[in-house]
């Protein structure tokens, strides 16, 4: 069966520091991968999605970037964190862009 | 993606059925109706989806009105582990899942 991992589970970072969040999927090949953010008291917002290695689509211009160095690995990065980057970051995968999505456990990021 | 309307909150008792409504009066012919739920401090979980006919799976049933302007997610026997925020989402061929505010379900023991 398929499994999706995210780490770390929680992270506290100072403003201006870099960020790297990692997501990996097991048990499937060539998944579509997604990064979402859920700010406190708000709905989920799609940040990036990827249909293959090196292929990244950005939904919202911001302080973040994404990369997909391997088929089942998706990385969310920032060079300098802002206070507004705080939130719950979720990685998801699907068989195809329009199929149901399966979410990871999430990373709760607090920027201080 | 078309808009959906859900009640902010609902309550149920354990082991009783729960009917979670969703209105989507502007649904188009190609929009699928998806349901996800999010337990506290966890990522969303796919529950079920359908287009026109009622659907059943191990988690729930989805009843879709004949005119497709509304649908109901049915949990046949609520358990405490079903306490979550339930999201009704229309997908018309987009890579995005657009999450609204959903319905917060409280299950009483």
Element order, helices and strands of chain A?
A: EEEEEEEEEEE
Could you give the order of strands across the largest sheet of chain B? 1-9-8-3-4
Oligomer: heterodimer
How many individual helices of chain A?
A: 0
Rg of chain A is 13 Å
Categorize the overall geometry of chain A.
Answer: globular
Helix/strand structural class of chain A? mainly beta
Query: In this structure, how is the largest beta sheet of chain A organized?
Result: 7 strands, mixed
Poorly predicted regions of chain B: none
Class from helix and strand fractions of chain B: mainly beta
Query: What is the mean pLDDT of chain A?
Result: 93
Counting DSSP H or I runs of 4 or more residues, the number of helices of chain B is 0
**End-to-end Cα distance of chain A:** 38 Å
Helix fraction bin of chain B: under 10%
Summarize this structure briefly:
Chain A is mainly beta and 112 residues long. Chain A is 0% helix and 57% strand.
Descriptive report:
The complex is a heterodimer of chains A (112) and B (109). Helices cover 0% and strands 57% of the residues of chain A. Chain A is mostly beta strands and 112 residues long. In chain A, the strands form 2 sheets. In chain A, strands 2, 4, 5, 6, 9, 10 and 11 form a 7-stranded mixed sheet that branches. In chain A, a hairpin with a 2-residue loop joins strand 7 and strand 8. The N and C termini of chain A lie far apart (38 Å). The relative contact order of chain A is 0.33. The mean pLDDT of chain A is 93. With 109 residues, chain B is mainly β. The model of chain B has no long low-confidence stretch (mean pLDDT 93). Chains A and B meet through strand 4, strand 5 and strand 10 of A and strand 4 of B.
């Amino acid at each position: 069966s398929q499994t999706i991992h995210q780490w770390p589970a929680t992270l506290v970072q100072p403003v201006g520091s870099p960020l790297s969040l990692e997501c990996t999927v097991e048990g499937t090949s060539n998944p579509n991968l997604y990064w979402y953010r859920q700010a406190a008291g708000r709905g989920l917002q799609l940040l990036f999605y990827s249909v293959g290695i090196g292929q990244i689509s950005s939904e919202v211009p911001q302080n973040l970037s994404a990369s997909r160095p391997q088929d089942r690995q998706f990385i969310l990065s920032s060079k300098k964190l802002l206070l507004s980057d705080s939130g719950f970051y979720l990685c998801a995968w699907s068989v195809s862009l329009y199929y149901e999505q399966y979410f990871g456990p999430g990373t709760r990021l607090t920027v201080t | 993606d078309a808009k959906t309307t859900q009640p902010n909150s609902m309550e149920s008792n354990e082991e009783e059925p729960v009917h979670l409504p969703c209105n989507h009066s502007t649904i188009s012919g190609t929009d699928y109706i998806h349901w996800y739920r999010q337990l506290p401090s966890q990522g969303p979980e796919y529950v079920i989806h359908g287009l026109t006919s009622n659907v059943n799976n191990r988690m729930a049933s989805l009843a879709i009105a004949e005119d497709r302007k509304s649908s109901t997610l049915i949990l046949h026997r609520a358990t405490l582990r079903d306490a979550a925020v339930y999201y009704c989402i229309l997908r018309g061929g987009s890579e995005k899942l657009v999450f609204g505010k959903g319905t917060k379900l409280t299950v009483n023991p």
